[in-house]
Amino acid sequence: MARINANYRKLSAGYLFSEIGRRVALFRQENPGVKVHHLGIGNTTEPLTPAVIAGLRDGVDRLATIDSYRGYGDEQGEEELRAGLVRFYRRRGITLHLDELFISDGAKPDAGNIQSIFSSDSVVAFQDPAYPVYVDSNVIAGRSGSYNNNRGDYAGFVYMVCNEENGFIPDPPQDKVDLIYLCSPNNPTGAVATHKQLKKFVEYARKCKAVIIFDASYSEFIADPQLPRSIYEVESAEECAIEINSFSKFAGFTGVRLGWSVVPKALTAEEGEPGELHRFWLRRQTTFFNGASNIAQCGGIAVLSDQGLKESAELIGYYMENARVIRDGLLVTGLNIYSGVNAPYLWLKTPGGLTSWDFFDKLLHEANVVGTPGSGFGPSGEGYFRLSAFGHRENIEEAVSSVKKNLRL
Ligand SMILES: *Cc1c(COP(=O)(O)O)cnc(C)c1O
Questions:
Q1: Cα(249) to centroid of ligand 1, in Å?
Q2: How far is the CA of 256 from the centre of ligand 1 (A)?
Q3: Per the confidence metrics, is the pTM higher than 0.85?
Q4: Cα–ligand 1 centroid distance for 248 (angstroms)
Q5: Cβ burial 232-242 (10 Å sphere, 16+ → b, else e)
Q6: How far apart are CA 251 and CA 300, in angstroms?
Q7: Which end of the chain is more exposed for a tag (fewer CB within 10 A), N or C?
Q8: Pocket test for ligand 1, best of 43, 45, 217, 345 (most atoms within 8 A of CB)
Q9: Mutate to test the pocket of ligand 1, among 104, 184, 187 (most ligand atoms within 8 A of CB)
Q10: Residue 265: what pLDDT?
Q11: Cα–Cα dist 2/13, whole Å
Q12: Distance 31 CA to ligand 1 centre (A)
């Protein structure tokens, strides 16, 4: 008799986006003809840039002739793309070797799969709130106890609380943990860890022989040159950190699908030798994954060209101007906004002590604007709310003026 992986039963219901959809559908039904504005999406909306389109077309053309056709590519991804990434890191003073880079079909799969190279009884720490994949993948792998509905957390996990007091970047855990997930700039809070804050985590990880899994998917949105865009800007991080990144938010590849992970050869785990985790990730990927699309990889090579980088910076500039419009517009209403300068998300405190969901309803009913309740990202997100800067400018402007005009604070 087949028995199922009962860890799936432990997962808290995939409640957030389906519940948002349900409440918006109900609102539309009860208020036909009312325009609903969206400031809730974590998805890109603007077209790919010309250099990238040319790269993707070139990828298609190469498949059209007998001389240039290729089937499966290099196990770790096209060498030209990895060489582009080596240059990308070198500009920040980081030296990586070609074979420390693993091209993937995105940061979400890598963030979900990376846990499989670690012991199933690892103690895992997460930023709270955080992108749900880190927690959920470890629940499925059996590293948690059951979900506590009242508290909104899983037994056995270590939650590193991010709140107003710590500027939404936590200190390393008090106790010894084995794995630590960090995301900077963070989704949902938009908070960015400073060099000093990352250094504390690297020192902790080296002391405890823990491994940091660093999601840098929003690194290119950092405007402040003092803030680190890679964990490897911290000395010795290559001994204790894996970095995951993606072309999704960087260059609008959410639907194209392309990402990468860095698993340094110097990385070590408690009883392992240097190089072993690197070998295991290669083994994992060659067993379960057959490479990113070669067309997408041609697009990625184009992103990393001088022209491609210039165009991606402009694309990011567009979204960050959206963020500025939201931020400036909402600050005058008296709402408390903590981010939106180095990340495409604005994290705000719900007014008057409302719960995240109560504020969701208020914003929808009074201003007809949809955002994302902070409580959907972890227990410490309660009382907070996420707005997203992804969207077309005119829609963003309409949403902001509706909030200014109609939200009763
Ligand atoms: C959007 C997002 C990703 C992107 O994942 P892809 O699979 O590359 O599209 C990864 N991490 C975080 C925190 C994100 O918000």
A1: 7
A2: 13
A3: yes
A4: 7
A5: bbbeebbbbbb
A6: 9
A7: N
A8: 217
A9: 187
A10: 97
A11: 24
A12: 34
Peptide bond before residue 185 is cis, with ω within 30 degrees of 0:
yes
Mean per-residue pLDDT over the chain, rounded = 97
Cα of 406 vs centre of ligand 1, distance in Å, is: 33
pLDDT of residue 15: 77
Pocket residues for ligand 1 (CB within 6 Å)?
Answer: 42, 106-108, 111, 131, 183, 187, 215, 217, 246, 248-249, 254, 259
Q: Which of 44, 249, 254 to mutate to test the pocket of ligand 1 (most atoms within 8 A of CB)?
A: 249
Angle, CA of 202, 127 and 144, to the nearest 5°: 105
Determine the Cα angle at 61 with ends 55 and 67, to 5°.
120
Helix intervals (H) in 214-290: 247-251, 276-288
Residue 295 corresponds to which tokens in the numbers above?
């067309």
Between the CA of 377 and the centroid of ligand 1 the distance, in Å, is 14
- The per-residue b/e assignment along 180-190, b for 16 or more CB within 10 angstroms, e otherwise, is bbbbbbbbbbb
Q: Is the peptide bond before 373 cis (omega within 30 degrees of 0)?
A: no
φ, ψ dihedrals at 330, nearest 5°: -85, -25
Q: Cα separation of 189 and 372, whole Å? A: 11
Residue nearest to atom 15 of ligand 1 (CA): 187
Give bridge partners of residue 161 from the DSSP assignment: 128
Nearest alpha carbon to residue 299 among 343, 246, 261:
246
Give the per-residue pLDDT at 289.
97
Q: What is the DSSP string of 284-316?
A: HHHHH-----HHHHHHHHHHTSHHHHHHHHHHH
Enumerate domains of the chain plus CATH numbers: 11-47+308-406 (3.90.1150.10), 51-305 (3.40.640.10)
Mean pLDDT of 41-61: 96
The band of 12, judged by pLDDT with boundaries at 50, 70 and 90, is confident
Which atom of ligand 1 is closest in space to residue 186's alpha carbon? 13
Ligand 1 atom, smallest distance to 130 CA: 13
CA distances from 379 to 172, 182, 320, 351, 388 (A): 18, 17, 28, 18, 20
Ligand 1 centre to CA of 109 (Å) is 9
pLDDT greater than 90 at residue 106: yes
